[in-house]
Amino acid sequence: MTAPAIHLWRLLKWGRTLARHGALRGIERDPNTPPAVRRLCRIARLGARVPKIPAYADALEAIGPPAIKLGQTLATRPDLIGEEAAHDLQRLQDAVPPLPFKAVEAAMLKSFGRPLGELFASIDPVPVGAASIAQVHRAVTTDGRTVAVKVLRPGVEDEFARAIDTYEWAAAQLESFGGELSRLQPRLVIETFKRWTARELDLRREAASASELAEAMTAEPDFRVPAIDWQRTTGRVLTLEWIDGIKISKRDELIAAGHDPKRLAEILVHAFLRQAIAEGFFHADLHQGNLFALPDGRVAAIDFGIMGRIDRRARVWLAEILYGLITGNYRRVAEIHFEAGYVPPHHNVGEFATALRAVGEPMRGMPVKEMSVGNMLEGLFNITRDFDMKTQPHLLLLQKTMVMVEGVATGLDPDINMWETAAPFVREWIRTELGPETAIADRLMADIKTLARLPDLVRNIERHFPAPGGAPPAPPLREIELVRIGGGWRYVAVALASAGAGIAATWLMLH
Description:
By secondary structure, the chain is of the alpha+beta class. The protein has helices at residues 4-20, 25-29, 35-44, 56-63, 65-74, 78-81, 83-89, 101-112, 156-175, 180-184, 186-201, 203-216, 251-256, 261-279, 312-327, 330-339, 349-364, 373-382, 393-412, 418-434, 436-459, 461-464, 493-510; strands at residues 120-123, 129-130, 134-141, 146-152, 223-224, 237-241, 246-247, 281-283, 291-293, 299-301, 307-309. Strands 1, 2, 3, 4 and 6 form a 5-stranded antiparallel sheet that branches. A 4-stranded mixed sheet has the order 5-10-9-7.
Protein backbone atom coordinates (compact mmCIF):
# COMPACT_ATOMS: atom_id res chain seq x y z
CA MET A 1 0.00 0.00 0.00
CA THR A 2 1.36 3.41 -0.99
CA ALA A 3 2.11 5.74 1.91
CA PRO A 4 -0.02 8.93 2.14
CA ALA A 5 3.14 11.03 1.96
CA ILE A 6 3.87 9.66 -1.52
CA HIS A 7 0.34 10.45 -2.67
CA LEU A 8 0.71 13.96 -1.27
CA TRP A 9 4.01 14.50 -3.05
CA ARG A 10 2.56 13.41 -6.39
CA LEU A 11 -0.47 15.61 -5.89
CA LEU A 12 1.73 18.55 -4.95
CA LYS A 13 3.61 18.29 -8.26
CA TRP A 14 0.38 17.96 -10.25
CA GLY A 15 -1.27 20.80 -8.31
CA ARG A 16 1.58 23.20 -9.06
CA THR A 17 1.36 22.35 -12.76
CA LEU A 18 -2.39 22.96 -12.76
CA ALA A 19 -1.88 26.27 -10.97
CA ARG A 20 0.66 27.48 -13.54
CA HIS A 21 -1.93 26.90 -16.27
CA GLY A 22 -4.69 28.72 -14.40
CA ALA A 23 -6.61 25.50 -13.96
CA LEU A 24 -7.39 26.16 -10.28
CA ARG A 25 -9.13 29.48 -10.89
CA GLY A 26 -12.58 27.96 -11.32
CA ILE A 27 -12.35 26.12 -7.99
CA GLU A 28 -11.86 29.31 -6.03
CA ARG A 29 -14.83 30.96 -7.74
CA ASP A 30 -17.21 28.02 -7.51
CA PRO A 31 -19.80 28.68 -4.76
CA ASN A 32 -20.00 24.94 -4.06
CA THR A 33 -16.32 24.75 -3.14
CA PRO A 34 -15.86 24.25 0.61
CA PRO A 35 -14.03 27.21 2.21
CA ALA A 36 -11.16 24.98 3.35
CA VAL A 37 -10.55 23.73 -0.20
CA ARG A 38 -10.77 27.29 -1.52
CA ARG A 39 -8.05 28.37 0.89
CA LEU A 40 -5.87 25.41 -0.06
CA CYS A 41 -6.21 26.35 -3.73
CA ARG A 42 -4.72 29.74 -2.94
CA ILE A 43 -1.80 27.99 -1.25
CA ALA A 44 -1.24 25.80 -4.31
CA ARG A 45 -0.89 28.78 -6.66
CA LEU A 46 1.40 30.88 -4.46
CA GLY A 47 4.18 32.29 -6.62
CA ALA A 48 2.68 30.99 -9.87
CA ARG A 49 2.00 33.23 -12.85
CA VAL A 50 -1.64 32.44 -13.51
CA PRO A 51 -2.94 33.11 -17.05
CA LYS A 52 -6.28 34.86 -17.47
CA ILE A 53 -7.78 32.02 -19.50
CA PRO A 54 -7.45 28.54 -17.90
CA ALA A 55 -5.73 25.94 -20.09
CA TYR A 56 -7.05 22.68 -18.64
CA ALA A 57 -5.97 20.46 -21.52
CA ASP A 58 -2.48 21.97 -21.64
CA ALA A 59 -2.10 21.38 -17.89
CA LEU A 60 -2.95 17.70 -18.14
CA GLU A 61 -0.71 17.23 -21.18
CA ALA A 62 2.14 18.72 -19.14
CA ILE A 63 1.48 16.29 -16.27
CA GLY A 64 1.75 13.21 -18.46
CA PRO A 65 -0.06 10.32 -20.23
CA PRO A 66 -2.18 9.09 -17.26
CA ALA A 67 -3.45 12.63 -16.73
CA ILE A 68 -4.29 12.91 -20.42
CA LYS A 69 -6.40 9.77 -20.20
CA LEU A 70 -8.09 11.02 -17.03
CA GLY A 71 -8.82 14.31 -18.79
CA GLN A 72 -10.50 12.45 -21.63
CA THR A 73 -12.68 10.68 -19.05
CA LEU A 74 -13.55 13.93 -17.29
CA ALA A 75 -14.48 15.52 -20.62
CA THR A 76 -17.60 13.32 -20.44
CA ARG A 77 -18.56 14.86 -17.09
CA PRO A 78 -19.65 18.50 -17.57
CA ASP A 79 -21.85 18.06 -14.49
CA LEU A 80 -18.66 17.56 -12.47
CA ILE A 81 -16.14 19.96 -13.93
CA GLY A 82 -18.33 22.50 -15.71
CA GLU A 83 -19.04 23.11 -19.39
CA GLU A 84 -15.98 25.32 -19.94
CA ALA A 85 -13.51 22.76 -18.60
CA ALA A 86 -15.26 19.85 -20.32
CA HIS A 87 -15.17 21.64 -23.66
CA ASP A 88 -11.47 22.45 -23.29
CA LEU A 89 -10.60 18.87 -22.31
CA GLN A 90 -12.22 17.57 -25.48
CA ARG A 91 -9.22 18.85 -27.44
CA LEU A 92 -6.84 16.43 -25.71
CA GLN A 93 -5.20 14.60 -28.56
CA ASP A 94 -3.40 11.88 -26.60
CA ALA A 95 -0.41 12.27 -28.95
CA VAL A 96 3.13 11.74 -27.68
CA PRO A 97 6.54 11.42 -29.38
CA PRO A 98 7.01 7.90 -30.81
CA LEU A 99 9.39 5.38 -29.30
CA PRO A 100 12.43 4.23 -31.30
CA PHE A 101 11.58 1.20 -33.38
CA LYS A 102 14.20 -0.89 -31.58
CA ALA A 103 12.24 -0.53 -28.33
CA VAL A 104 9.01 -1.47 -30.11
CA GLU A 105 10.66 -4.42 -31.83
CA ALA A 106 12.02 -5.66 -28.50
CA ALA A 107 8.57 -5.37 -26.89
CA MET A 108 7.00 -7.37 -29.73
CA LEU A 109 9.67 -10.06 -29.56
CA LYS A 110 9.18 -10.42 -25.80
CA SER A 111 5.41 -10.58 -26.16
CA PHE A 112 5.34 -13.18 -28.96
CA GLY A 113 8.23 -15.24 -27.61
CA ARG A 114 9.51 -16.12 -31.08
CA PRO A 115 11.25 -14.38 -34.00
CA LEU A 116 9.15 -11.71 -35.68
CA GLY A 117 10.15 -13.08 -39.07
CA GLU A 118 7.90 -16.08 -38.43
CA LEU A 119 4.89 -13.74 -38.20
CA PHE A 120 5.63 -10.73 -40.38
CA ALA A 121 7.32 -10.38 -43.75
CA SER A 122 7.99 -6.70 -43.01
CA ILE A 123 7.21 -4.02 -40.44
CA ASP A 124 7.43 -0.31 -41.25
CA PRO A 125 9.73 1.22 -38.59
CA VAL A 126 7.97 4.60 -38.89
CA PRO A 127 4.75 4.52 -36.82
CA VAL A 128 1.47 5.72 -38.30
CA GLY A 129 0.40 6.95 -34.87
CA ALA A 130 1.76 7.25 -31.33
CA ALA A 131 -0.34 7.75 -28.20
CA SER A 132 0.16 7.62 -24.45
CA ILE A 133 -0.53 3.89 -24.19
CA ALA A 134 0.57 2.41 -27.52
CA GLN A 135 1.82 3.15 -31.00
CA VAL A 136 0.80 1.65 -34.33
CA HIS A 137 2.95 0.37 -37.21
CA ARG A 138 1.98 -0.85 -40.66
CA ALA A 139 3.14 -4.36 -41.44
CA VAL A 140 2.77 -7.22 -43.92
CA THR A 141 2.17 -10.75 -42.63
CA THR A 142 4.04 -13.80 -43.87
CA ASP A 143 0.92 -14.76 -45.87
CA GLY A 144 0.87 -11.37 -47.65
CA ARG A 145 -1.84 -9.45 -45.79
CA THR A 146 -1.38 -5.77 -44.87
CA VAL A 147 -2.16 -5.23 -41.19
CA ALA A 148 -1.93 -2.62 -38.45
CA VAL A 149 0.13 -3.63 -35.42
CA LYS A 150 -0.57 -1.83 -32.14
CA VAL A 151 2.12 -2.23 -29.47
CA LEU A 152 1.94 -1.14 -25.83
CA ARG A 153 4.66 1.25 -24.72
CA PRO A 154 7.14 -0.50 -22.35
CA GLY A 155 6.48 0.33 -18.70
CA VAL A 156 3.10 1.93 -19.36
CA GLU A 157 1.24 -0.44 -17.00
CA ASP A 158 3.36 0.58 -13.99
CA GLU A 159 3.05 4.28 -14.85
CA PHE A 160 -0.73 4.10 -14.98
CA ALA A 161 -0.93 1.90 -11.87
CA ARG A 162 0.94 4.50 -9.80
CA ALA A 163 -1.21 7.36 -11.06
CA ILE A 164 -4.52 5.52 -10.57
CA ASP A 165 -3.50 4.56 -7.03
CA THR A 166 -3.10 8.24 -6.20
CA TYR A 167 -6.32 9.19 -8.03
CA GLU A 168 -8.21 6.68 -5.89
CA TRP A 169 -6.66 7.99 -2.71
CA ALA A 170 -7.40 11.62 -3.58
CA ALA A 171 -10.98 10.84 -4.63
CA ALA A 172 -11.58 9.16 -1.26
CA GLN A 173 -10.36 12.28 0.54
CA LEU A 174 -12.68 14.45 -1.55
CA GLU A 175 -15.72 12.23 -1.06
CA SER A 176 -15.20 12.39 2.70
CA PHE A 177 -16.21 16.07 2.57
CA GLY A 178 -19.79 14.86 2.03
CA GLY A 179 -22.54 17.01 0.56
CA GLU A 180 -22.24 17.81 -3.12
CA LEU A 181 -19.01 15.88 -3.49
CA SER A 182 -20.63 12.77 -2.07
CA ARG A 183 -23.49 13.06 -4.59
CA LEU A 184 -21.06 13.38 -7.50
CA GLN A 185 -19.28 10.20 -6.40
CA PRO A 186 -15.68 11.00 -7.35
CA ARG A 187 -14.55 7.52 -6.33
CA LEU A 188 -16.96 6.01 -8.82
CA VAL A 189 -15.58 8.34 -11.50
CA ILE A 190 -12.06 7.09 -10.85
CA GLU A 191 -13.28 3.48 -10.74
CA THR A 192 -14.86 3.97 -14.18
CA PHE A 193 -11.61 5.45 -15.46
CA LYS A 194 -9.72 2.51 -13.96
CA ARG A 195 -11.91 -0.02 -15.78
CA TRP A 196 -11.53 1.82 -19.09
CA THR A 197 -7.77 1.90 -18.68
CA ALA A 198 -7.64 -1.79 -17.77
CA ARG A 199 -9.29 -2.60 -21.09
CA GLU A 200 -6.84 -0.41 -23.02
CA LEU A 201 -3.83 -1.91 -21.25
CA ASP A 202 -4.84 -5.46 -22.22
CA LEU A 203 -4.98 -5.48 -26.00
CA ARG A 204 -6.71 -8.87 -26.03
CA ARG A 205 -9.71 -7.20 -24.41
CA GLU A 206 -9.68 -4.46 -27.04
CA ALA A 207 -9.53 -7.16 -29.70
CA ALA A 208 -12.49 -8.93 -28.09
CA SER A 209 -14.46 -5.67 -28.06
CA ALA A 210 -13.82 -5.18 -31.77
CA SER A 211 -14.84 -8.76 -32.49
CA GLU A 212 -18.06 -8.42 -30.46
CA LEU A 213 -18.95 -5.14 -32.17
CA ALA A 214 -18.35 -6.67 -35.60
CA GLU A 215 -20.85 -9.45 -34.80
CA ALA A 216 -23.40 -6.94 -33.50
CA MET A 217 -23.11 -4.78 -36.63
CA THR A 218 -23.93 -7.45 -39.20
CA ALA A 219 -27.29 -5.68 -39.65
CA GLU A 220 -25.44 -2.51 -40.74
CA PRO A 221 -23.39 -3.64 -43.77
CA ASP A 222 -22.30 -0.06 -44.51
CA PHE A 223 -20.38 0.11 -41.21
CA ARG A 224 -17.18 -1.91 -41.07
CA VAL A 225 -15.09 -3.12 -38.15
CA PRO A 226 -11.60 -4.40 -39.07
CA ALA A 227 -11.00 -8.11 -38.57
CA ILE A 228 -8.73 -9.23 -35.73
CA ASP A 229 -5.69 -11.40 -36.45
CA TRP A 230 -5.90 -13.50 -33.28
CA GLN A 231 -2.79 -15.53 -34.15
CA ARG A 232 -0.73 -12.33 -34.00
CA THR A 233 -2.45 -10.76 -30.98
CA THR A 234 -1.34 -10.92 -27.36
CA GLY A 235 -1.96 -8.85 -24.25
CA ARG A 236 0.67 -6.35 -25.43
CA VAL A 237 0.35 -6.57 -29.23
CA LEU A 238 -2.83 -6.18 -31.27
CA THR A 239 -2.82 -7.07 -34.97
CA LEU A 240 -5.84 -6.22 -37.09
CA GLU A 241 -6.84 -5.65 -40.69
CA TRP A 242 -5.39 -2.52 -42.28
CA ILE A 243 -8.02 0.10 -43.10
CA ASP A 244 -7.26 1.93 -46.33
CA GLY A 245 -9.54 4.95 -46.49
CA ILE A 246 -9.91 8.70 -46.07
CA LYS A 247 -10.36 10.20 -42.62
CA ILE A 248 -13.87 11.51 -42.06
CA SER A 249 -12.40 14.86 -40.99
CA LYS A 250 -11.06 15.54 -44.51
CA ARG A 251 -14.33 16.62 -46.13
CA ASP A 252 -12.74 18.15 -49.25
CA GLU A 253 -10.79 14.95 -49.94
CA LEU A 254 -13.95 12.91 -49.46
CA ILE A 255 -15.81 14.97 -52.04
CA ALA A 256 -12.87 14.85 -54.46
CA ALA A 257 -12.84 11.06 -54.15
CA GLY A 258 -16.53 10.91 -55.09
CA HIS A 259 -18.00 10.29 -51.63
CA ASP A 260 -21.38 11.75 -50.63
CA PRO A 261 -20.86 13.41 -47.21
CA LYS A 262 -24.58 13.35 -46.48
CA ARG A 263 -24.71 9.60 -47.04
CA LEU A 264 -21.63 9.06 -44.85
CA ALA A 265 -23.28 11.08 -42.06
CA GLU A 266 -26.43 8.97 -42.26
CA ILE A 267 -24.40 5.75 -42.12
CA LEU A 268 -22.61 6.96 -39.00
CA VAL A 269 -25.81 7.99 -37.21
CA HIS A 270 -27.60 4.73 -38.05
CA ALA A 271 -24.58 2.68 -37.00
CA PHE A 272 -24.37 4.45 -33.67
CA LEU A 273 -28.10 4.01 -33.01
CA ARG A 274 -27.82 0.31 -33.86
CA GLN A 275 -24.99 -0.04 -31.36
CA ALA A 276 -26.40 2.03 -28.51
CA ILE A 277 -30.14 1.35 -28.69
CA ALA A 278 -30.59 -1.99 -30.43
CA GLU A 279 -27.45 -3.82 -29.27
CA GLY A 280 -26.56 -2.02 -26.02
CA PHE A 281 -22.84 -2.18 -26.86
CA PHE A 282 -21.30 0.85 -28.53
CA HIS A 283 -18.01 2.35 -29.63
CA ALA A 284 -17.59 5.24 -27.19
CA ASP A 285 -14.78 7.06 -28.96
CA LEU A 286 -16.24 7.85 -32.39
CA HIS A 287 -14.28 11.02 -33.04
CA GLN A 288 -13.11 12.05 -36.50
CA GLY A 289 -9.65 10.51 -36.10
CA ASN A 290 -11.15 7.04 -35.57
CA LEU A 291 -13.48 7.05 -38.59
CA PHE A 292 -12.63 6.44 -42.26
CA ALA A 293 -14.54 6.47 -45.53
CA LEU A 294 -13.66 3.40 -47.58
CA PRO A 295 -13.42 3.41 -51.41
CA ASP A 296 -16.69 1.46 -51.66
CA GLY A 297 -18.63 4.11 -49.70
CA ARG A 298 -18.71 2.34 -46.36
CA VAL A 299 -17.60 3.82 -43.03
CA ALA A 300 -14.98 2.02 -40.93
CA ALA A 301 -14.03 2.57 -37.29
CA ILE A 302 -10.80 1.85 -35.41
CA ASP A 303 -9.56 2.03 -31.79
CA PHE A 304 -11.87 -0.03 -29.58
CA GLY A 305 -10.29 0.75 -26.22
CA ILE A 306 -13.31 2.66 -24.86
CA MET A 307 -16.64 0.85 -25.23
CA GLY A 308 -20.00 1.43 -23.57
CA ARG A 309 -22.61 -1.09 -22.51
CA ILE A 310 -26.26 -0.57 -21.49
CA ASP A 311 -28.68 -3.33 -20.49
CA ARG A 312 -32.05 -3.70 -22.23
CA ARG A 313 -34.14 -2.24 -19.43
CA ALA A 314 -32.04 0.92 -19.28
CA ARG A 315 -32.17 1.20 -23.09
CA VAL A 316 -35.96 1.07 -23.05
CA TRP A 317 -36.04 3.76 -20.39
CA LEU A 318 -33.56 5.89 -22.31
CA ALA A 319 -35.55 5.61 -25.54
CA GLU A 320 -38.74 6.60 -23.71
CA ILE A 321 -36.98 9.55 -22.06
CA LEU A 322 -35.66 10.91 -25.36
CA TYR A 323 -38.94 10.30 -27.17
CA GLY A 324 -40.93 11.87 -24.33
CA LEU A 325 -38.82 15.01 -24.38
CA ILE A 326 -39.39 15.39 -28.11
CA THR A 327 -43.16 14.80 -27.91
CA GLY A 328 -43.67 16.84 -24.74
CA ASN A 329 -44.82 13.98 -22.48
CA TYR A 330 -42.86 15.33 -19.50
CA ARG A 331 -44.95 13.51 -16.90
CA ARG A 332 -44.01 10.13 -18.38
CA VAL A 333 -40.36 11.15 -18.63
CA ALA A 334 -40.42 12.11 -14.95
CA GLU A 335 -42.07 8.82 -13.98
CA ILE A 336 -39.37 6.87 -15.83
CA HIS A 337 -36.65 8.65 -13.87
CA PHE A 338 -38.34 7.60 -10.62
CA GLU A 339 -38.97 4.03 -11.83
CA ALA A 340 -35.32 3.69 -12.84
CA GLY A 341 -34.14 5.00 -9.49
CA TYR A 342 -32.33 7.92 -11.12
CA VAL A 343 -34.22 10.38 -8.88
CA PRO A 344 -34.58 9.57 -5.14
CA PRO A 345 -38.20 8.83 -4.11
CA HIS A 346 -38.40 11.72 -1.62
CA HIS A 347 -38.69 14.16 -4.55
CA ASN A 348 -42.00 15.06 -6.20
CA VAL A 349 -42.78 13.63 -9.64
CA GLY A 350 -44.73 16.74 -10.63
CA GLU A 351 -41.90 19.08 -9.69
CA PHE A 352 -39.45 17.02 -11.70
CA ALA A 353 -41.83 17.04 -14.68
CA THR A 354 -41.91 20.85 -14.49
CA ALA A 355 -38.10 20.99 -14.51
CA LEU A 356 -38.08 18.71 -17.55
CA ARG A 357 -40.56 20.98 -19.28
CA ALA A 358 -38.06 23.83 -18.93
CA VAL A 359 -35.59 21.66 -20.85
CA GLY A 360 -37.93 20.36 -23.52
CA GLU A 361 -40.20 23.26 -24.43
CA PRO A 362 -37.53 25.59 -25.87
CA MET A 363 -36.38 22.73 -28.07
CA ARG A 364 -39.89 21.85 -29.26
CA GLY A 365 -40.38 25.35 -30.61
CA MET A 366 -37.35 25.08 -32.90
CA PRO A 367 -37.23 23.83 -36.49
CA VAL A 368 -36.32 20.15 -36.65
CA LYS A 369 -32.94 20.78 -38.26
CA GLU A 370 -31.96 23.10 -35.39
CA MET A 371 -32.74 20.63 -32.60
CA SER A 372 -29.50 19.47 -31.00
CA VAL A 373 -29.28 16.22 -29.11
CA GLY A 374 -26.25 17.60 -27.34
CA ASN A 375 -28.09 20.70 -26.13
CA MET A 376 -31.05 18.62 -25.00
CA LEU A 377 -28.90 16.22 -23.00
CA GLU A 378 -26.93 19.11 -21.55
CA GLY A 379 -30.14 20.66 -20.26
CA LEU A 380 -31.30 17.33 -18.86
CA PHE A 381 -28.12 16.77 -16.87
CA ASN A 382 -28.08 20.37 -15.65
CA ILE A 383 -31.07 19.63 -13.39
CA THR A 384 -29.44 16.63 -11.72
CA ARG A 385 -28.15 18.67 -8.77
CA ASP A 386 -31.57 20.05 -7.82
CA PHE A 387 -33.03 16.55 -7.62
CA ASP A 388 -30.10 14.71 -6.01
CA MET A 389 -29.58 12.50 -9.07
CA LYS A 390 -26.49 10.36 -8.55
CA THR A 391 -23.92 9.82 -11.24
CA GLN A 392 -24.87 7.24 -13.90
CA PRO A 393 -21.56 6.58 -15.72
CA HIS A 394 -23.15 4.43 -18.44
CA LEU A 395 -25.57 7.22 -19.39
CA LEU A 396 -22.92 9.93 -19.23
CA LEU A 397 -20.68 7.93 -21.56
CA LEU A 398 -23.61 7.57 -23.94
CA GLN A 399 -24.30 11.31 -23.74
CA LYS A 400 -20.69 12.10 -24.59
CA THR A 401 -20.75 9.71 -27.55
CA MET A 402 -24.06 11.06 -28.87
CA VAL A 403 -22.69 14.60 -28.80
CA MET A 404 -19.49 13.39 -30.52
CA VAL A 405 -21.41 11.57 -33.26
CA GLU A 406 -23.65 14.57 -33.80
CA GLY A 407 -20.58 16.78 -34.19
CA VAL A 408 -18.93 14.45 -36.71
CA ALA A 409 -22.16 14.06 -38.68
CA THR A 410 -22.70 17.82 -38.75
CA GLY A 411 -19.16 18.29 -40.02
CA LEU A 412 -20.01 16.03 -42.95
CA ASP A 413 -23.50 17.44 -43.56
CA PRO A 414 -24.25 20.81 -41.90
CA ASP A 415 -27.97 20.32 -42.56
CA ILE A 416 -28.27 16.94 -40.86
CA ASN A 417 -30.26 16.56 -37.65
CA MET A 418 -29.82 13.58 -35.36
CA TRP A 419 -33.54 13.32 -34.64
CA GLU A 420 -34.66 13.67 -38.23
CA THR A 421 -32.19 11.02 -39.36
CA ALA A 422 -32.80 8.74 -36.39
CA ALA A 423 -36.59 9.07 -36.13
CA PRO A 424 -37.54 6.01 -38.26
CA PHE A 425 -35.05 3.77 -36.47
CA VAL A 426 -35.97 4.95 -32.96
CA ARG A 427 -39.72 4.86 -33.66
CA GLU A 428 -39.54 1.31 -34.99
CA TRP A 429 -37.36 0.14 -32.11
CA ILE A 430 -39.70 1.65 -29.51
CA ARG A 431 -42.72 0.09 -31.24
CA THR A 432 -40.99 -3.30 -31.31
CA GLU A 433 -39.71 -3.16 -27.74
CA LEU A 434 -42.78 -1.58 -26.13
CA GLY A 435 -45.56 -3.01 -28.31
CA PRO A 436 -48.22 -5.38 -26.89
CA GLU A 437 -46.69 -8.51 -28.42
CA THR A 438 -43.33 -7.77 -26.86
CA ALA A 439 -44.92 -6.91 -23.52
CA ILE A 440 -46.75 -10.27 -23.43
CA ALA A 441 -43.64 -12.18 -24.48
CA ASP A 442 -41.51 -10.39 -21.90
CA ARG A 443 -44.05 -11.12 -19.19
CA LEU A 444 -44.18 -14.81 -20.05
CA MET A 445 -40.41 -15.10 -20.10
CA ALA A 446 -40.10 -13.20 -16.83
CA ASP A 447 -42.68 -15.46 -15.15
CA ILE A 448 -40.96 -18.62 -16.38
CA LYS A 449 -37.58 -17.40 -15.18
CA THR A 450 -39.05 -16.39 -11.82
CA LEU A 451 -40.58 -19.84 -11.31
CA ALA A 452 -37.29 -21.47 -12.18
CA ARG A 453 -35.51 -19.31 -9.61
CA LEU A 454 -38.18 -19.64 -6.92
CA PRO A 455 -36.30 -22.07 -4.62
CA ASP A 456 -33.19 -19.90 -4.62
CA LEU A 457 -35.22 -16.72 -4.27
CA VAL A 458 -37.00 -18.05 -1.19
CA ARG A 459 -33.76 -19.11 0.46
CA ASN A 460 -31.85 -15.94 -0.41
CA ILE A 461 -34.49 -13.24 -0.77
CA GLU A 462 -32.77 -10.60 1.33
CA ARG A 463 -29.36 -11.10 -0.23
CA HIS A 464 -30.29 -11.61 -3.88
CA PHE A 465 -33.54 -9.71 -4.47
CA PRO A 466 -32.57 -6.87 -6.88
CA ALA A 467 -33.23 -3.29 -5.84
CA PRO A 468 -35.28 -1.15 -8.27
CA GLY A 469 -33.35 0.96 -10.74
CA GLY A 470 -31.90 0.75 -14.22
CA ALA A 471 -28.34 1.69 -13.43
CA PRO A 472 -25.79 -1.11 -13.17
CA PRO A 473 -24.60 -1.78 -9.61
CA ALA A 474 -21.65 0.34 -8.59
CA PRO A 475 -18.37 -1.59 -8.58
CA PRO A 476 -16.87 -2.35 -5.16
CA LEU A 477 -14.47 0.34 -4.03
CA ARG A 478 -11.45 -0.58 -1.97
CA GLU A 479 -11.06 0.77 1.55
CA ILE A 480 -8.81 3.83 1.69
CA GLU A 481 -7.61 5.40 4.91
CA LEU A 482 -8.74 9.02 5.15
CA VAL A 483 -6.41 11.78 6.25
CA ARG A 484 -8.06 14.09 8.76
CA ILE A 485 -6.59 17.29 10.14
CA GLY A 486 -7.47 17.78 13.81
CA GLY A 487 -9.21 15.43 16.22
CA GLY A 488 -6.00 13.55 16.95
CA TRP A 489 -4.56 13.66 13.41
CA ARG A 490 -1.67 16.15 13.08
CA TYR A 491 0.65 16.76 10.18
CA VAL A 492 3.64 19.03 9.86
CA ALA A 493 3.38 22.17 7.73
CA VAL A 494 4.95 20.56 4.66
CA ALA A 495 2.38 17.77 4.60
CA LEU A 496 -0.43 20.29 5.03
CA ALA A 497 0.80 22.38 2.10
CA SER A 498 1.14 19.24 -0.02
CA ALA A 499 -2.35 18.12 0.86
CA GLY A 500 -3.68 21.54 -0.05
CA ALA A 501 -2.12 21.45 -3.48
CA GLY A 502 -3.14 17.85 -4.02
CA ILE A 503 -6.77 18.29 -3.00
CA ALA A 504 -6.99 21.44 -5.08
CA ALA A 505 -5.59 19.61 -8.11
CA THR A 506 -8.00 16.73 -7.74
CA TRP A 507 -10.94 19.06 -7.08
CA LEU A 508 -10.27 20.66 -10.45
CA MET A 509 -10.71 17.30 -12.14
CA LEU A 510 -13.82 16.40 -10.20
CA HIS A 511 -15.76 19.67 -9.96
